[in-house]
Amino acid sequence: MRRYIAGDGGDCQLVDIEDNKIMVRLTGACVGCQLAGVTIGGIQMRLMAKLGAPVRVIPVQPRH
């Protein structure tokens, strides 16, 4: 997944996992991008397909 995000100048970092909640931080070109929500949704769909279980991907604010 990171490869596709990096292709647009962004990146994604795993921050934490709590039960079925996966916290990620989008960085680079993804910060402030209007399509960041679509990216989070795509990450969630791919993770659910790979894990075979429902998960919720939650974006975490970038560090300043």
Automatic annotation (TrEMBL):
GO terms for biological process: iron-sulfur cluster assembly. GO terms for molecular function: iron ion binding; iron-sulfur cluster binding. SUPFAM superfamilies: Fe-S cluster assembly (FSCA) domain-like. Residues 1-58 form the NIF system FeS cluster assembly NifU C-terminal domain. Gene3D superfamilies: Fe-S cluster assembly (FSCA). InterPro entries: FSCA_dom_sf, NIF_FeS_clus_asmbl_NifU_C. This is NIF system FeS cluster assembly NifU C-terminal domain-containing protein. It comes from Rhodoplanes roseus. The lineage of its organism: Bacteria, Pseudomonadati, Pseudomonadota, Alphaproteobacteria, Hyphomicrobiales.
